[in-house]
Amino acid sequence: MLMSRERQASLRAEVPLDVESKTVAIIGGEGGMGRSLNTLFSDLGHDVSSADLQTPLRPADAAAAADVVIISVPIRETRGVIEQLGPLVRKEALLMDVTSIKTDPMAAMLASTEASVVGTHPMFGPGVNTFQGQRVVICPGRGDAWLDWARQMFTARGLVISEATPDKHDSMMAIVQVLHHFKTQVLGMALSRSGASLEETLHFTSPAYLLETYVTGRHFAQSPDLYGPIEMLNPDSNRVIETFCKAAADLADIVAAGDQEAFNQVFADVRAFFGEFTDEALEQSGFLIDRLVELSAGRSST
Amino acid sequence: MLMSRERQASLRAEVPLDVESKTVAIIGGEGGMGRSLNTLFSDLGHDVSSADLQTPLRPADAAAAADVVIISVPIRETRGVIEQLGPLVRKEALLMDVTSIKTDPMAAMLASTEASVVGTHPMFGPGVNTFQGQRVVICPGRGDAWLDWARQMFTARGLVISEATPDKHDSMMAIVQVLHHFKTQVLGMALSRSGASLEETLHFTSPAYLLETYVTGRHFAQSPDLYGPIEMLNPDSNRVIETFCKAAADLADIVAAGDQEAFNQVFADVRAFFGEFTDEALEQSGFLIDRLVELSAGRSST
Predict the structure, then answer these.
(1) Is B177 in the A-facing interface, judged by CB distances under 8 Å?
(2) Do strands A23-27 and A47-51 pair parallel, antiparallel, or not at all (unpaired)?
(3) Predicted ipTM > 0.90
(4) pTM given for the model
């Protein structure tokens, strides 16, 4: 890949001076996330190779040779690939994954090898413009030296690190990802089944509706092959989804009954949950609303 | 109210030169929306009076005297106030309301008086910084001259006008408002019942989760007395809410069954509904995501 001199210079400056170049093998290196990881580690001065189904470099050879072996394959393939390649990873090397679920891949990695193990979940898609400020969750597995190395590398690229056990990660992602994806999907389904056309509703849009519709439209432009496994394989999914469906049924009853008192109690309960965060929400959403007023005004009236 | 010379000058420039000053009585003029309407019509050069429960001016006297009588009272009070004051409105005057539901208030207005009637739904809260670009839905009732006047006034203040029958308005608002408010409320309820603390989840936030959480926090900072009637009194509410709950149950089944094929079909169906709007959604949400990456990075990691 060609880089401008300026970009090379600025990237070199990011590499901690006392870090030596490692060989990094990305299994699934031709996928979107694989290529993103390639950029991330190459720019830090490491010697990155990509092994995928169609590459001349075979995954088994890459896994046996590299200092760092990163499993970046579809969620449903992850355990199988780990069980196949883990035993080949050198004992002094690092086996790492980037799966959106952490309990099962971590258990598979720890069982498959005596090498160091670090689980990660980069919370951004392959299409991001910059790593700066993106979040990555790290699950410590085995081996402190490589754990420190992983922290250093992500920090050097400006990523924000959250650390958690695999269980904690998955229970948090059941809320941060599963609950919110599920909600967006249900909204999209309800809209598409409403009998109205989208264009028609947009003639009557409020800024809030336009925002939700952008978020929903964006969601469904992504691949269901990404979201399906995240929702189906998270061990906490069904609990969270049941909570959502129960809340919907409860609120539907309240609205159908016209029970304003119960409706007020819902607001009181949820407000208590949000607590002081409400102030931040009001402040930060203000700029969004202003921008969206402009956008919704731009959509012509009938 | 004191105004700078500059503001007075710019506001005078907004008034169409051939429009004469009218007397405008706002029934419920001391409420948030009433005060907002007072500003809107005063700044256009009209002679605005406010009649409310505590004002020296009695609503009945105001309604009998004014050229334009605007009903701006809580939704649940609207029909009663219209039935009481409508018969007092002069035949050559305009009776107008600003209720978020349109079928019932329009029927009440048309039945209560022989005056001209225009229904409106200003789709913004009392707290907005500017009328410019905000949307107002107008439902023509009776009398073309006053209908034109209402259009002129809102246009002069930079509002975007959508026109619809009361039925169409309510069916569109069942989607634009009811469905989205309901979804946000269910999400807030599910979050508050999830067993996790909000602060804990924010240590693992993605930009998308932060955005949703701002939107949800903002929603619950508003009054349930506003949202309750909008959801309970819209004639299309129950149909839309049932569609939402059915979609949630369908998707819950698909996720619990691990049925990726059915999940893909959901995406295909919703994507077809969104159609070309998807491109706009991707483009316009890009700027939001970038800003939210900064904000979520600003929230410290554990």
Answers:
(1) yes
(2) parallel
(3) no
(4) 0.88
